[in-house]
Amino acid sequence: MLELDRLWKTYDTPKGPATIVKNFNLKLKEGEFATLIGHSGCGKSTVLMMVAGLSDLSKGNMILAGREASGPGPDRGIVFQSPCLLPWMTAYENVMLGVNQVYFTASKAERRQMAEYYLTIVGLGDAMHKHPGELSQGMRQRVGIARAFALQPKMLLLDEPFGMLDSLTRYELQEVLLELWRRNRITTLMVTHDVDEAIFLSDRVVMMTDGPEAEVGDILKIPFERPRNRKEIMEDPRYYELREHLITFLNDRSHIRPSREPQFKPSPDMAAELAAHAFPFPTAAA
Amino acid sequence: MPLIEIKGASKGFGPPGNRTEVLKNINLSVEEGEFVVIVGYSGSGKSTLINMISGLVKPDTGTASISGEVITGPGPDRGLVFQNYSLLPWLNVEENIALAVDEVFKDWTPEQRKAHVAKYIAMVKLTPAAHKLPKELSGGMRQRVSVARTLAMQPKVLLMDEPLSALDALTRAQLQDEIADIWLNNKTTVIWITNDPDEAILVADKVIPLLPTSPATLGEPMIVDMERPRDRKAINHDARFKKLRTQLITTLLDAKGRTKVKASVKITLPDILPEDLNYVNSLQFLNRSGPKRRSDKNREEVEVAA
Amino acid sequence: MHLIQRFKLDSIFLPLGAILVTCFFWYVIAGKSVITEKVDDFGDKIKVTKREGLSADLPTPVETWTASKLYITEPFAKRGELDQGILRFTWMSLVLVAQGYAIALIIGTPIGFFLGLSKKFTTAFDPIIQVLRPVSPLAWLPLGMILFSGVKIVNGDGRTTFGASDAAALFTIAICAMWPTVMNTAVGVRAVPQDYLNVAKVLKLSKWKTLWKVLVPATLPYMFTGFRLSLGIAWLVIVAVEMLTGMPGVGGFLWQQYNANSYAHIILCILTIGVVGYVLDRLMSAIESRFKTA
Prior knowledge:
heterotrimer, B: alpha/beta, Rossmann fold, about 20% strand, globular, C: two-stranded antiparallel sheet, 10 helices
């Protein structure tokens, strides 16, 4: 569904080019939920912005649904950390702005139904005609999620969507997201630094090394069945194993760049991803 | 006798007729030297609860008392640490702390007070930054100054209202460990309010969920009987931690779920598919009157050999 | 409860007290008529009225009121071209201001948008704007007279309804009042958060839609701050313009009364100008705050 092939991001600085992201490879299957995890400043958001088309690729290819993708567009729905609602429009109008845009061939009634459907599912049935200023932070993010899903994008890009919320509200919104995702399994790439969020939501967690020159450091498959129930997952013995794997990576291994370690042994999940790419393992010379 | 005791307290705001009850039937008792963490959703009345103890808010019914005496107003025996540090920006670290110390310990000699300030700056590991202004410090360092200032006044109880919520995850983790360490050496009674269940279990002796019923009320206390100092990584293997964590999170999430008014509405998802805006100018829209539909997708034409 | 009551009373009595104190000082420095009896050269007793005081010709508050009463109690009376009720004069000035102000907004807002949107446009025109901005209205007016010297619209009975001085007045008001609108709109457009623009980009909104659905609403609060400041300036300019051209209006009346030595009427004019300016500013900030919350 999405192929990221040797993605580079470099910025020109007075001291010469600075590489933010180096040789980033990833393949997502249709309907897969993948998460990028890493410390702040490691370039995980840069990767997401490149996929979104809001940031140019310095090098590399990006293929979305069999076509080279360039520039932003509504085929990739984005949920930002702050929901980016236009404050002079109601929640409903904010969703309608996009709906009118991509369903311009549909009837007015159908478009209205579309916006109402998604706003109701995220739990805003009664509050959809309020302005963002009257909504709590969590409610605003619900609107952001509804707006993204209502456009039925080919891909969903989530940039720390719950980063600004407190832990408990975050748990609630994760459930909202999963509920929507259960109805429409849109291929999703999420960026987060929350280990629990990554495990609860995704099929695969891609760990990124520290920036600059960030690259894929490790990959972990999350084996839990869907639909997922938080209590069951938390009581599953595998949960804390996975959690520890991620925490250990973030605390102890995030500085190890595979391309600079001749002795690097990829984990089984990462080896599988490497095998999926036709070219050899990235080397220091690459 | 418990140091802090709240009995049957309730509190609401607003005029009669348009009144919102925030807290109901709050019963809390905190022993001397205890580290209590109250976990709840934002906007569920956590701050009202801590203000009741600090004396900024008077309960409508019931009482709040410290060492057996009813709390009538703020006092130096209860030190408050806020989320927003509240440091004076034109005073450096030392002066900010000295301001509070000079106020509380008026009868001490200047040398005594200076030594006292230095001791607390050292306690939060800020000695090298003692002469820096708040704006030259990171958020985490500022909050450490705020904690040092409050501790230096030697209150009977330290009240912390979401002290770490404004910090990033890494700094937050660091400060959780540090405050837990300081507490271990100091054993001041602490009441800490947070919205992070992990934070609560990591630092507390006793975790009390604030259930988001309307009005909110306190749930069953959960005792955290894990040795200190607690290692945030090793704790992951601890069966007690896992059990408490699951119990706390599900208690809070279930309580929230129960408060929701269940109403079923019938909504239908219209059967329309988005247009590809990359080809808006192409002619394909001309020979098609309506939108693309999902059912068209399924209605493929298949040639079957007759 | 006590606090609220006290606050309300304070907000009435404190300003009232300040007004009384000001009037007292006014009274102290104002001239007073002193009547003395004198024997003249013919041996007759006559009464001589003399003004005495710090500022002998300045009328006292009471004298001002007595002299101005007619203009206030009959605010719309018309006794002659330059002898009309004060609100009638105010209305004439306001009409002129409204026209000039409208021109300022119609020209200023798009210029502001161009400045905000295009770096090149800014680099090109910024020097000109910065030089023209501080020019006084008194300097623009003669230029306006020259520019529009040929303008003359005559009505049926041969009287000029819109002449060179009217055109020059509008030109002066417009060009002086335009700058706050231009500058604030430009700042507002530059301050539109990248987030909002990203929304437009991701949804592939057309240029037109981006302008009306995102840029204009996001800039509105800034634009209205500019509009309010512009209105204030337009009202300042009108007085100067009327004084110079002798057009009927509060400013014209003021100048004419100065020449006629009716000093009390000058004070009446100043107070009227102040009150009207204040009311206009309040009106605009009321509108402004409505857009702020949206």
